[in-house]
User: Which sequence fits this backbone?
């Protein structure tokens, strides 16, 4: 979307709201993309964990999180002379009833890809044609989605999740999740991988478990695999 805006001469500015919910590689990728496109990106630091409603992690946590983030973004954008805020939701996101999408509607955030009927596959095709390195980047949800609703979100737990996912990256896995499972007053790590990567994980099981157990007392594997 940023590429298209710049290509067609729109007055457009890139922002990245940096919170503890985003792993470091996401910020690095955003910086890399902005540099590739030859445009500046403003990084806004936001302590999302100061929001008690977000920390309590209700089932509609995403609503409160998106509201906080986009209010912060809107204030900065207005200060910079912009009155319209865009996000990257696409037509493959069946998101009308999702809490986060409700927040975007309330704040009048526009989603051009979705409004124009551009699907995830079309985004990838167009990105590849444009020479963007992100064209085949796996979908990635924020770290808070790894924590079950009702389980308090802390900086320490988010870091444990990010460190565990970094382990999987280091072993060459992709499109995975390390989810938190609550049991006996503690939390364990549950690895979810695409089905085609399960055999590879079993081959490296000993080393992977050894590394992740630095962050979680027990490591589980979802044998059904990730569907998407």
Assistant:
């Amino acid at each position: 979307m940023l590429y298209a805006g710049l290509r067609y001469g729109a007055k457009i500015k890139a922002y990245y709201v940096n919170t503890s919910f985003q792993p470091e590689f996401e910020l690095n990728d955003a910086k890399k993309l902005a540099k590739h496109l030859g445009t500046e990106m403003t990084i806004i630091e936001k302590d999302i964990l100061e929001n008690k409603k977000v920390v309590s992690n209700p089932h509609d946590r995403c609503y409160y999180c998106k509201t906080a983030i986009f209010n912060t973004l809107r204030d900065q954008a207005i200060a910079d002379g912009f009155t319209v805020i865009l996000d990257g939701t696409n037509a493959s996101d069946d998101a009308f009833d999702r809490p986060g999408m409700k927040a975007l509607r309330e704040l009048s955030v526009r989603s051009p890809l979705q409004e124009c009927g551009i699907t995830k596959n079309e985004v990838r095709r167009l990105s590849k044609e444009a020479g963007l390195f992100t064209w085949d980047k796996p979908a990635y949800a924020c770290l808070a989605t790894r924590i079950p609703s009702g389980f308090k979100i802390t900086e320490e737990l988010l870091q444990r999740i990010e460190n565990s996912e970094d382990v999987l990256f280091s072993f060459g896995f992709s499109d995975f999740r390390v989810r938190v499972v609550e049991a006996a007053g503690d939390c364990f790590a549950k690895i979810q991988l695409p089905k085609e990567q399960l055999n590879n994980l079993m081959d490296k099981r000993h080393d992977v478990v050894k590394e992740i157990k630095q962050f979680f007392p027990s490591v589980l594997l979802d044998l059904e695999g990730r569907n998407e």
Residues 57 and 113 are 29 Å apart (CA to CA). The longest helix spans residues 61-79.
